Amino acid sequence: MLAKKQLTLKLFFPLLLLVFLSGCWDKIELEDIALVTAIGLDKGSIPGRVDVTLQIMNAQKAMISQGNATDKEPDHINITLRNTTPVLVKDQANAVITRRINISQVQAFLIGEELAREEDLYNVIAAMIRDPEMRRETPVIITKERAETFIDRNRPKFETLIYAFYRFKFNRWKETGDVPLSSVNDYLRAHADQAPYLFIYATTERKKTKAKGKGDDTTAGHMEIEGGDPVEMIGAALVKEGKMIGTLTGEETRFALLLAQNLRIATYYLAFPDPDDKPWMISTRLKNETPPTIEVDLKGKRPRITVTVPLYVEVLSIPSGVDYVADITLQKKLAQYLEQTMQRKFADLVEKAQHTWKADIFNWYRFVRSRFLTWQAYEAYDFPKRFPEADVSIRVQLQMVDFGKQMRPQDKLPPFKKENR
């Protein structure tokens, strides 16, 4: 009896080991992998074809500490495949790359502006995600120059490994709101809704601009900044019906996201000319803790859209020396001035969206669509064509909440009244 038990145990344990070892049949060694960190897409010289640039990171450099043999190897290499299709690039790249191409860790899609303006981006991007390794949440960036040139020039000074650049940038985008958080999945969703979409806009072609004192009210490549990384990333590229039709400044992008209820930051900074001493600028912190309310009225010949934007303002700096802190009359004057300025900025952006781009960049179609019982009825209404003629009213409700820790007013303005909706 004891001998049978011993024999059973001797047979059982080898079989148990086979169960765990079976998970190693498809293992891949680290030195066999070439990780792609960025994919660039540009217009090819043959109609219907694209030039695809792969930025390939040395995986061993990311895992092995300094002082090893890998120190002599490059951190990454760039290769460009001409006149091809996105689906074929992995196999074609192995003609010059010895390791297995892996695109599961791609940090960003980069699309050259020339391609974005002339080709249907849906077809280009949809072709990329046919590969099961591709992640749909991958960020998408439209570059002013060719994506190939952007990738080659992008050599950040702080990040030793190039993949960290896109990861850190993505975290900063969330905090500033100066660029949209564009991704493959969100674009495909917008395309399915036949809606325009805002992509991140970036360039390495930094030029001196004649416009002075614009701050973030400008597009990539035109900021008054010297030094830093070669890449300048601010503003948005507007894509309508699959093609790029224009750009938004950083400030316009932030306002567009706010009016669309898509601004994912609670506070941001803006500077305004001092109403009592114009050459000086008043620095403020705006808080949009309460999202805008959007009302839609479709009873008339033209759709009527009313947007109410509640904003809390904290004044951080008054270089002019005007005593807004203690004088309640000056406080009221400042609050009225800031409210009118913000309302004018919103109105200018809506005017541009309706008559220059003729595109609902604020995603108000979602509120219009909710008024219809069926998809067919919504399509028959054809809101995208009605949007340029829509009657849009923007109302800013502004409350001065603070003058900073060192400048707290003795008497604050009463909070704005919340309307029943």
TrEMBL record:
GO terms for cellular component: membrane. Keywords: Germination, Lipoprotein, Membrane, Palmitate, Signal. It is found in: Membrane. Residues 26-198 form the Spore germination protein N-terminal domain. Gene3D superfamilies: Nutrient germinant receptor protein C, domain 3 (3.30.300.210). InterPro entries: GerAC_N, Spore_GerAC-like, Spore_GerAC-like_C, Spore_GerAC_C_sf. One of its GO terms (biological process) is spore germination. Pfam families: Spore_GerAC (PF05504), Spore_GerAC_N (PF25198). It is a lipid-anchor. Belongs to the GerABKC lipoprotein family. This is Spore germination protein GerKC. It comes from Candidatus Carbonibacillus altaicus.
